[in-house]
Amino acid sequence: MSKFTVKELLGLIKLLRIDVFFLLANILVSLPSIAFNQLVQDKICTNKFSVNETVCLNLEKSEPGYDFIRNQVLKETTSLKLYLNILTTLPSIFISVILGHWLDTYPGHLRYLLATSIFSIISQNVISLNNIHLITDSYSLIYTYLVPVLTGSLTTISLGTYTYATRKTPAEYRALRFTVLEICVFASLPICSIFGGRILESKPWFPNQLRNYIGVYIVSSICGLIAAVWAIIMIYDSAESVDKNAKSDEPSSDEVKNEKKKSLAQVVCDLINPNNYLDAARCIFKKKPNNAHWYLFTSIIAGYVSNMAYVGEQAISYQFAQRVYHFNAEKIGYYGSFPILWLALGALSGPPLFIHWLKFHDSTVSAISYASMMFNFMIRGIVYDPIVYFLSVIGIFAGVSLVLDRVIISRMIEPTEVGRVYAVTGIIGGLVPTLSSLFYTKIFQATIDSKPGLVYLCSGLLFSYPVINSIILSIARNKWDLELIKKRKQTPTDKELDKS
Known about the structure:
CATH superfamily: MFS general substrate transporter like domains
Number of domains: 1
CATH architecture: Up-down Bundle
Number of strands: 0
Low-confidence stretches: 244-256
Oligomer: single chain
CATH class: Mainly Alpha
Distance between the termini: 29 Å
Number of helices: 27
Order of helices and strands: HHHHHHHHHHHHHHHHHHHHHHHHHHH
Radius of gyration: 23 Å
């Protein structure tokens, strides 16, 4: 195998500049997850129930006489996380619309938006350190999220990353491009799950701590600082696009330069203009040939439903593992990494296997992926044993759908509509955590004493709509896929030029 030269290595890093940032940003956000869950439970247990502190620190292994206290703590923790999801997601609806217009009109500002978002999340970590003492109320942790919520940090990172990747990647390579981004997400999750649990259960780095909460937040913040510096230095070409010949009624490069000469007040007024909301909606509902706009609409709804079933699991997964498997933080981190590894392997091998080797269309692969995810959730609701973490290999191709959702939508729209269409999906994404958390929390709280797995059975059934929608898209792909339509219209000369 030939060795990489320094120049080739730098070229590879340059190519994956947004991917490295996305990986670090996800570690920043996800690493404190286990510590946050455990800190909330410790606060509720010690402040609300008159039991020995040792019982609260080992609540998942407590004797049967403490089952009522354990279940009450788990129920109240899921309620707090529900309120937190409402606080953190609803403001993102407004932010998504503004941000979509901003990214289309001022793409060169992306690196500053990304760096600012990172610093907002780091400030959240710093504020959280002031609330680690168990004597403070558990609901005080909700206020630590105000800074990233008001600045739209999570929305900016997600929407900015995928808009950049779409603008910088030709349509035929977007499946692979988005696969790399999803691998960054999947890579961050087991890292955060394993190391987050181990750091939390390790010897405290500072005195007067029952667990090593501070250590988790310090490591998370260090990753965030690296991500912010990386964004400022490396994400300098966001104003450039691979599709320079796209025709639309959007601003040209000269018009964009003129936009930059506006005063700050004019820029702000432009961004909060109500027409931005209507403009974003028009990209979805404007009539397209062959009624392709309806395929776009149903695909967005399918993504909404699948994300509701998939994302909402985070609202109860930690408490479910303690209730059913009696795991502590370290075991949850260790065993929880296996399903994520299956997803990562599937996301990595799925597109090459199905798309490039078997020549399946993206929508066909999406149907396979959703079915894989549905069976995975159903098994978790039936099998009450830790072996389910290994049986989840049946959902190995579930992660492919997270890639193909965006790929399919990107093949339905023009390149100049990317920012606004992703803004609309961001609006829907802003509602997903709230509704999915409500769905998971209420079912889990109602069944925690007798049938805790029922919540996974219900969520598995939700995937039936995305499966059906993907099958319909596969059958009618010649009506909505702009790349297939373009190839049918090409003359032999055009095809020769494309090959060259």
